[in-house]
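Observation: inputs received (chain + pseudouridine-5'-monophosphate).
Thought: call the complex predictor directly.
Action: predict_structure
Action Input:
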Amino acid sequence: MLKKYLEIKPEVKKALDEGRPVVALESTIISHGMPYPRNVETALRVEEIIRENGAIPATIAILKGKLKVGLTEEEIEYLGKAENVIKTSRRDIPFIVARKQDGATTVASTMIIAALAGIKVFTTGGIGGVHRGAETSFDISADLQELANTNVAVVCAGAKSILDIGLTLEYLETMGVPVVGFGTEEMPAFYTRRSGFNVDYRVDDPQELALAIKSKWDLGLNGGVVVANPIPEEYAMDYDIINKSIEDALKEAEEKGIKGKETTPFLLAKVKDITKGESLDANIQLVYNNARLGAKLAVELAQLR
Ligand code: PSU
Ligand code: MN
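Observation:
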């Protein structure tokens, strides 16, 4: 049944069958998170970094209605350039599939498809969360509900302060999702290493992390894990500059009446313009840093089987 929907790239399939480490990657970051051509350059370099660190990359997307696990270079290039690719979260999957459309997967839908393929580790830039003002807008990313239910560890650089980081952490606590700081006690805020909020657990090496994740799933405690990996110091942005930029972007989103699934891409693009591209450079570096950690985690998990 699943075969009808799922298309796993042969290299990825072989690695999974042999119990070798595989790391999933999302595609909304390519189509809606970064401008062309840096989105494509980044997506290709991330795959290389995962290989350099001992794992097989599997970028996930929906192409002509097929759930694709592992893309070719041409497919990544296509997603980076095409303008009709639909940002696809959990609710969208059935329609994109049935209509045989192209969909770029968010954290939520990438987790779903990774889990269907048997991939345990997924690396990205930032997760969605509870938006600022959610008490009136109700804007809470479906990523959080997916983390509550689906057994995939997500390596990210924390949550961006376009979100309400405190409320995002509260939501994750309620849903029983562990938030782990890699080498830090403080929740990183994507462009910066600090947020003023603590993580639940600090771990300092990938093996320790793999042991905790394996224990979680062995015990039937379903759901994901947020691995929050701070941006390397040398690429981190100035706390005040980035927060001012985010404030301005949020104001403009409000004035323009941006809502729903448009919000996150709009804010990312605005912050990039306001910072004259500096935020994009930081974004790319933190994605690379997460890929390195994700590959190491996948290697450790594969050894624990
Ligand atoms: N954060 C980023 N870059 C991104 C996203 C989030 O720094 O590209 C994307 C991810 O795909 C994430 C999605 O899953 O935005 C969340 O969108 P929403 O807030 O509409 O759930
Ligand atoms: Mn939303």
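Thought: report the result.
Final Answer: The CA atoms of residues 179 and 200 lie 5 Å apart. The pocket of pseudouridine-5'-monophosphate (ligand 1) is lined by residues 26, 28-29, 32-33, 89, 106-107, 125-126, 128, 141-143, 160, 261, 264, 268 (CB under 6 Å).
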